[in-house]
């Protein structure tokens, strides 16, 4: 057995954990930081709550509050100009994956030359980044602990990823209280994103014993608790479990990568702006049925992790996970592609673009064809 597994951030977890922010900030001795968030986080009162904590640290503050869902290169460049002009020495990002990913990307440009599009791919960031404290408000992308930033290149109409250990947040504050105000559709979509991370990392051809362990445990926790938080958003025990499940899963996919579900979801978001988790969830069951041909045993192990025993007939049991995920999507209100406004006429172009996605390299079933993707899109329609 031989493998590499990277972890970096100092993580503070628990209700009220935001109270640790002043101490963490003081530890860095920074003169000025940029606080990054979006409208939804502001409307929920979370941005103001974080601002209070930053004020306690007596650190100079610049605010960037124009994060958008599925952030683009343009917004990254806009924020980077402000951060450089203001001479910021570190970042606090509070929000979902969009806010945290944007802060990671802006951070790249603080210490590395050129434009952000040059850093797409793996290990392209040459210089270390500034301190970044990530405070997630969804559960979630796990962006708070991953080495990934996902951005849209509006000119190329693609969603691309920067994967680099240098962009990982220095500190993470996971306060489940901050996920309480998520609208139910965001709760469902972000939870399904986390479940997608668990299953795709488990079957990834980069999986190792340590990532597999995290994927299985993450899936078990997320699968059990997602229906509970969708049913009752004030169930804080379940919200807490969702946040824990995301962290466990994040360690897995940050090291094992993802696959065909994310290839399709990125393409859907680049073309039609679908929320990331909704795009993943719409195709997840069908991609898992497709992948079952390549990794039947792993599909059965994933089904076992969510308490579904098989009939000892591997040919049938390899589809148990896909069936369970289809039922879960229905239960938590995931919309089909047609309900999400994706026109059938676009399927041809979408399928061609999916085949160009680098993340396909990690999918267990190789040799994915345009016809394969078209069949999955039709099932998800
Ligand atoms: N870096 C990674 O490892 C990684 C992994 C998966 C996905 N992503 C990326 O993350 C982005 C998606 O992030 P997301 O799914 O967390 O959603 P998001 O950050 O786009 O937020 C979605 C919406 O929910 C609102 N919101 C978030 N938290 C809230 C709260 N607590 N209360 C009220 N409203 C709240 C936001 O304001 C926004 O309107 C995508 O761009 C995706 O590609 C990154
Ligand atoms: Fe994702």
Q: Can you describe what's shown?
A:
The protein is α/β, with parallel strands linked by helices and 381 residues long. The chain has two domains: 10-179, 3-Layer(aba) Sandwich (Rossmann fold), CATH 3.40.50.1970; 184-380, Up-down Bundle (Dehydroquinate synthase-like, alpha domain). Helices cover 50% and strands 11% of the residues. The protein is built from 15 helices and nine strands. The chain has helices spanning 21-28, 39-43, 46-57, 73-85, 97-111, 184-203, 209-231, 236-256, 260-272, 276-291, 296-305, 314-317, 320-331, 347-354, 370-380; strands spanning 10-13, 32-36, 60-64, 91-95, 121-122, 132-136, 148-153, 158-163, 171-174. The strands form two sheets. The protein has a six-stranded parallel beta sheet, sandwiched between helices. α1 (21-28) packs across α3 (46-57), α6 packs parallel to α8 and α10 (276-291) runs antiparallel to α13 (320-331). The model has no long low-confidence stretch (mean pLDDT 97). The site of fe (ii) ion has 7 residues, from α6 and α10.
């Amino acid at each position: 057995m031989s493998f590499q597994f990277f972890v970096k951030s100092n993580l503070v977890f628990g209700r009220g954990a935001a109270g640790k922010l002043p101490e963490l900030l003081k530890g860095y001795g920074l003169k000025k930081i940029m606080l990054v968030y979006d409208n939804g986080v502001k409307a929920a009162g979370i941005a103001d709550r974080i601002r209070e904590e930053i004020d306690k640290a007596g650190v100079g503050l610049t605010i960037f509050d124009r994060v958008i869902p599925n952030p683009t290169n343009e917004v990254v460049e806009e924020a980077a100009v402000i951060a450089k002009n203001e001479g910021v020495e570190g970042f606090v990002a509070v929000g979902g994956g969009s806010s945290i990913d944007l802060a990671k990307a802006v951070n790249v440009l603080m210490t590395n030359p050129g434009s952000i599009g040059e850093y797409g791919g793996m290990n392209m960031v040459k210089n270390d980044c500034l301190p970044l404290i990530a405070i997630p408000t969804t559960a979630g992308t796990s962006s708070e602990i991953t080495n990934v930033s996902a951005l849209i290149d509006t000119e190329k109409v693609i969603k691309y990823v920067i994967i680099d250990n240098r962009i990982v947040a220095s500190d993470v504050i996971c306060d489940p209280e901050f996920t309480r105000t998520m609208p139910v559709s965001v709760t469902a979509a972000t939870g399904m994103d986390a479940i997608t991370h668990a299953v795709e990392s488990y079957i990834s051809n980069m999986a190792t014993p340590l990532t597999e362990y995290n994927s299985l445990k993450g899936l078990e926790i997320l699968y059990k608790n997602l229906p509970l938080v969708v049913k009752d958003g004030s169930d804080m025990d379940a919200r807490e479990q969702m946040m824990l499940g995301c962290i466990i899963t994040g360690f897995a996919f940050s090291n094992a990568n993802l696959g065909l579900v994310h290839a399709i979801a990125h393409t859907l978001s680049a073309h039609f702006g679908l929320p990331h988790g909704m795009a993943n969830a719409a195709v997840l069951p069908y991609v898992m049925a497709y992948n079952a041909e390549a990794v039947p045993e792993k599909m059965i192990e994933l089904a076992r992790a969510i308490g579904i025993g098989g009939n000892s007939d591997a040919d049938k049991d390899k589809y148990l996970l896909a069936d369970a995920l289809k039922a879960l999507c229905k239960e938590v209100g995931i919309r089909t592609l047609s309900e999400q406004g994706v026109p059938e006429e676009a399927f041809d172009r979408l399928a061609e673009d999916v085949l160009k996605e680098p993340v396909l390299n990690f999918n267990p079933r190789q040799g994915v064809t345009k016809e394969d993707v078209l069949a999955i899109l039709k099932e998800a329609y």
